[in-house]
Amino acid sequence: MSAEAHAGNHYYVPHGTQWPIIGSIGLFITMFGAGTWLEGMAFGKVLFVIGLLVVLFMMFGWFGTVIRESESGVYNAQVDRSFRWGMSWFIFSEVMFFGAFFGALFFARMFVQPWLGGSSNALFTNLLLWKGYEPAWPSNGPGNVGGDFEAMKATGIAALNTLILLTSGLTVTIAHWGLKEGNRKKLCWFLLFTIILGFSFVALQAHEYIDAYTKQHLTLGSGIYGSTFFMLTGFHGLHVTIGAIMLTVILFRSLKGHFKPDHHFAFEAVSWYWHFVDVVWLGLYIFVYWL
Amino acid sequence: MSNTAVAHEHHAEHPSGIWRWISTTNHKDIGTLYLFFSLLMFFVGGSFAMVIRAELFKPGMQLVDPLFFNEMTTMHALIMIFGAIMPAFVGLANWMIPMMIGAPDMALPRMNNWSFWLLPFAFLLMLSTIFMPGGGPAGGWTMYPPLMLQTGMAFPFVIFAVHLMGISSVMGAINVIATILNLRSKDMPLMKMPMFVWCWLITAYLLIAVMPVLAGAVTMMLTDRYFGTSFFNAAGGGDPVLYQHVFWFFGHPEVYIMILPAFGIISEVISTFSRKPLFGYDSMVYAVASIAFLSFIVWAHHMFTVGMPLAAELFFMFSTMLIAVPTGVKVFNWLATMWRGSLTFETPMLFAIAFVFLFTIGGFSGVMLALVPADYQYHQTYFVVAHFHYVLVTGAAFAIMAGVYYWLPKWTGHMYNETLGKWHFWLSVISVNVLFFPMHFLGLAGMPRRIPDYPVQFTDLNMVASIGGFVFGASQLLFVAVVILCVRGGKKAEARAWEGARGLEWTLPSPAPYHSFSEPPPASAVWAHPYRQD
Amino acid sequence: MTINTFRNALRATVIAALTFMSGAAFAAGPSTYSGLNMPRGVTPISHDVYWIHMFVLWVCVVIGVVVFGLMIWSIIFHRKAAGHQAAHFHDSTFFEVTWTIIPFVILIGLAIPAAKGLVRIYNTSDPDMTVKITGYQWKWQYDYLQDGFSYFSMLAADSEKASRLDSGIDPRSVPHYLRDVDHPMVIPTGKKIRLLITSDDVIHSWYVPDFAEKTDAIPGFVNQAWIEVEKPGTYRGGCTELCGRWHGFMPIVVVAESPDDYQKWVAAVKAGGGAYINPQTLQPEQNGSPVTFAPAQLNFNAPTTGATPAAAPAPAAQPAEPAKTAAAPAPKASSNWTMKVAMARGKQVYDQNCASCHMADGKGNPAIGAKAIAGGSVPNGPLAAHIALVLHGKGIMPAWGNMLKDDDLAAVITYERNAFGNHTGDLVTPAQIKAAR
Ligand code: HEA
Ligand code: HEA
Ligand code: CUA
Ligand SMILES: [Cu+2]
User: Fold this and answer.
1) Which of C 293-332 lie inside 8 A of A, CB atoms?
2) pLDDT (tens digit per residue) in A139-167
3) Residue A220, min C-alpha distance to chain B (Å)
4) What's the 3-state SS for A190-246?
5) Is the CB of B62 less than 8 angstroms away from the CB of C203?
6) What is the Cα–Cα distance from B111 to A89, expressed in whole angstroms?
């Protein structure tokens, strides 16, 4: 890839890149695979995995290029700003994605339940279709879809996980201070703590899920409660995992001596992302586990 | 001049052939890709519309199976919205925004390339479903469950295609924001940006806010079908109407996503050909901003008949009606811009004027639809179809054509053939009204939407509409001819192709150099033809 | 394309154009129904709605005249060609405020009557009677809760035949093409009737223009609406929410009769054990009653009743309690339940309900994922599985359990297992179906 050698004060414009098209092809294969898989075709699984590998390859390549360019110092302050705008609005779009599921949760709890119970102008919904159904939460609906289950408690693992994530938010900030002070030891150690905390969160959640399925008989199919619970916490867990992986990458880069006290966008991007994951969890803890 | 020098060196440098287009990070190349893709999709979606119009030409089933008809309706809409209109606007943004604000390129060129190259794959995924067992999606572009859950094998592919389009749009929007906020010439304060740039900035925010919500909605449907969730199933404590709320929370802002950039283009064109600065610049900006804000609190006006509580119906009725105010401000400002100007009527101006007329008609029917009691009659009839084609075809699509004619000289370095352009305009503007105006009457007479066959009393008006449709469709072939001829050659265009044109893009030579402003433009250039003077 | 199609087209263009110019036809009411404007309708609500519609329409016309007038003015007089020099003003707080305020005021003027009308529409309290309406793919069920009987209403057979792809039948030759049903809904005039609208499968929407009544039928929820019809007559509408392949083919016909005639009808139906009776067979003099939706000429002798025997429910022994009626057990006629009877009945049921997807020749329709009956795995497989599938449906296959009576189901399953070259020899009895439910 020829990179236009603009003077440092110029805005860096890369020339030509093969990564996007590879990414598109990868995503296409992944999704085509997933689709055929869902429709019960065996080869779908294979395609799906192949596609994911291609996407991974793209990510390594793309990020690799960017890192190399960054270290070679072609990114001036203005380019850095573009990245910041980009990352912050990407995170905002993620917030809206979670918003859709929170919205579903609120709607189901605050409106659908009362309606099924016959409130406001839905009286006959209850009388004719769901006679005797009492609105409640947690609920798997008048059809008792998925059978009786034991709901999640705000105490126990959930509380512990809250503690873990909040602490991790703190440790990553301390790591940032370390980076700013040029204190690499501090940076790396606290990054490490953060990562450990992150992965232990994931581990605990996995444990929580297993309990849910085996002991509490609470599954994705347990009506609206199961649906909202697993979709919300599931997508969040996915984000924690991704975040933790990104942190790991950052750790290795720090060990390699990347980043300068005044020039470390990648680190900040990941820590923003981490804080976002953190905040979403608070929302989850309050609205899914607690209230 | 240094930046042309740079440009030449690049012309020599960038790879040629297909790989150039696949690997390019240049905002003009990518803009071109977007525009051609959108034209292609316009034809595909249009041919589907032709199938619809042909089947509806007379009562009785003549051509297709009812289910296939529904597939046509669904695909027509999805392709026109996500494949034709939106990519066209992104293409124009790619081409023009850097030039208008004195930037070397888009802020994130690699991501820019990806935003585009996701689209062909997304539509490959979607169009392929037509050939799958059970056929393509046939639940309408709104994809309401439970009906959508009955889709055959196509189901997951459609949803994944929607995901891809969403990713593409969000990345495109992020790029626009970063470019406008970060790469703008330091001599151009926000409140002196060209109106097109302002409209796109706000559109970009809308995109980032709502595309993920659509992704969420279809994802819930996916899990409902394959993983036993009950989001849209009453027995499990869900509600099919929940989908409609989430969908329209995306869907309504979506329709403004398709009109705000149009407002921008129209503002540019009208002021240019009136040889008069845009009237009421500030109020224009505030109007667009308030339209964008309001668009988030009106979504349920698409759902007046689902049995919402009275309070909700009233709230959404009032909030919806409010949108007429800022939109009116824009219409009146355009009027005032033309007022006592020195008007000439080149093709872009003709399309812009038609836009103001016909969009306003579409807006009026919109306000009628907003009145809940009346909507009980209009809802899901051809009156709605008439409404949104006036705002989408004679609104969004006409604005895009105005923009293309307006900027073609800048892109190609040639003037297009004015005579052919005028032919294209007059044929389109007449046929499009023959096509869509009768639909108002059909709707009022009670003809439902999304039906492949109809009672005989609707025959005459449907024939009229179909004939209009065929003529309108055929006229679009003329548009293609004009564009191709203009790329091939034609009268040489000056830097400032239009006498009344303002703004930075006209300080660049025509065709614009491969790199817009490798050197930041000097303040003098920014104010050479001040976009806004006071 | 024939000459006269062109003539029609031409005529319509002229009508449409003229109407728009003069707006004359906008005054058209139901009696002189123009086919170009919203019908005034025959309920208090429909009158409100019509008034609101005309009001907002004229408001828009006036605003339009002003806006477009100004524009045309400057197009004509401010042309460069006419030597007009461009002025240079680009701001005027006064004007900008004015044209923000005025539209706002106008909108308030529109909002008030609309809000009033809406409040009235939402008042479904103390009705004189209540009918539950359930949407199915693709038919309606009318359930007279107080009187304890219910029946299905689907597209009339002649329309259905004519609407088949390349049927060769000219729709114009079919009375009320796609606007006619086998069993119209029957209601009394002058009574406040509460409609309880729901669905059994996907979302439908119950729409009769003359009642200005359109309410979505949503599975799992019951919506309320009310109508009070002023004039006796036959009023036609249809389903207005996309509900799949035959969405365009599930019309609604409502026959409004004087309360006494209505009572006669109810009595007759009850006497018949809930079996549907066409009101016209009771009051032939009903002919020619004002019709506002269909085109002027009106033909009640259209071959509707009897034309679709399979859909006419077999006399149910006892009027079952309301919501359940659809699934009411059929008479145990096992004594005379022979293969011959079952096959004959089965063919009718099949042609009426199954042929649209599985095709008259049982070859199925891959395009929509409808499996073949001829040599199909299910019809030739285990009986229990076959019954279960028909009863409860799967994917696009509807759950016929709640739509057909036991004996119809027994018949059609027997038919499927022994027709189209299938030779299982199974004779399915209503009892078996009942047991499998
Ligand atoms: C570009 C797209 C676009 C735009 C700009 C609009 C603009 C508006 N739309 Fe439209 N709409 C659609 C695209 C669009 N719509 C689509 C695609 C659908 C159907 C979706 C589906 O079901 O498939 C739809 C459906 C739709 C419905 C649902 C109908 C139904 O299904 O029952 C409603 C109801 O309120 C509505 C209202 C409005 C209103 C009030 C505006 C307003 O923004 C209009 C404002 C403009 C004006 C009013 C004209 C100019 C103003 C003046 C000259 C000032 C003075 C005027 C007055 C005081 C009245 N629209
Ligand atoms: C977004 C923009 C957009 C655009 C540009 C259009 C453009 C057109 N639309 Fe569409 N339409 C929608 C958005 C759009 N539509 C939406 C959202 C719906 C709702 C879907 C739903 O209910 O779910 C809809 C639904 C819809 C319906 C209702 C279908 C139904 O309810 O069953 C109809 C019916 O006439 C229709 C017609 C047309 C026609 C004739 C055009 C014409 O303008 C098209 C003209 C273009 C061409 C014809 C292509 C170019 C020319 C050629 C391919 C050459 C060959 C052709 C000839 C020689 C004749 N559209
Ligand atoms: Cu039922 Cu459409
Ligand atoms: Cu809307």
Assistant:
1) 323
2) 998 988 888 888 888 888 999 999 999 99
3) 6
4) HHHHHHHHHHHHHHHHHHHHHHHHHCCCCCCCCHHHHHHHHHHHHHHHHHHHHHHHH
5) no
6) 14
Chain B contact present for C81, CB below 8 A:
yes
pLDDT tens, B220-266?
999 999 999 999 999 999 999 999 999 999 999 999 999 999 999 99
Atom of ligand 1 nearest to the CA of B378: 32
For C227, the enclosing helix (H) or strand (E) is strand C223-227
3-state secondary structure C48-107: HHHHHHHHHHHHHHHHHHHHHHHHHHHHHHCECCCCCCCCCCCCCHHHHHHHHHHHHHHH
Cβ of A93 within 8 Å of Cβ of B170? The answer is yes
Instruction: Please name the residue of chain A whose CA is at the shortest distance from the CA of residue C196.
Output: A124
The C-alpha atoms of residue B98 and residue B104 are separated, in whole angstroms, by: 7
Q: Which residue has the least CA distance to atom 54 on ligand 1?
A: B328
The three-state secondary structure class of C243 is coil
Pocket test for ligand 1, best of B250, B384, B444 (most atoms within 8 A of CB): B384
Structure tokens at B345: 């009527």
Give Cβ neighbours of residue B496 (< 8 Å, ≥ 6 apart): B506, B507, B529
Mutate to test the interface with A, among B182, B233, B314 (most CBs of A within 10 A): B182
Active-site residue, B65 included: no
Report C:193-252 residues touching B (Cβ under 8 A).
201-203, 205, 207, 209, 212-216, 218-221, 223-224, 237-249
> Do the Cβ atoms of A125 and C222 come within 8 Å?
yes
Residue A96 is predicted with a pLDDT of: 95
The per-residue pLDDT for range C154-192, each reduced to its tens digit, is 998 888 888 888 888 888 888 889 999 989 999 999 999
DSSP-derived secondary structure for C334-398: GGG--HHHHHHHHHHHIIIIIHHHH-TTS--BGGGTB--STT-HHHHS-HHHHHHHHHH-BTTB-
**C185: nearest Cα among C316, C272, C279:** C279
For residue C95, what pLDDT band results from cuts at 50, 70 and 90?
confident
Pairing between β-strand C251-257 and β-strand C233-239 as defined by DSSP bridges: antiparallel
B252 is known as an active-site residue: yes
* B327 assigned to active site: yes
The complex's ipTM?
0.91
Chain B: closest CA distance from residue A40 (Å): 10
pLDDT of residue C335: 56
pLDDT score at C283: 58
Contact C169 B60 (CB under 8 A): yes
Test B134 with C52 for CB contact under 8 angstroms: no
Strand partners for C224: C196
Q: Using CA positions, which residue lies closest to atom 42 of ligand 2?
A: B46
Residue A37, CA distances (Å) to A98, A219, B118, B141, B165 in order? 26, 22, 22, 25, 21
Contacts of residue A101, Cβ cutoff 8 Å, sequence gap at least 6: A228, A231, A232, A235, B216, B220
DSSP assignment, residue C155? B
* Residue pair B452/B69 in contact by the 8 Å Cβ criterion: yes
Query: For atom 30 of ligand 1, which residue has the closest CA?
Result: B379
pLDDT of residue B534: 53
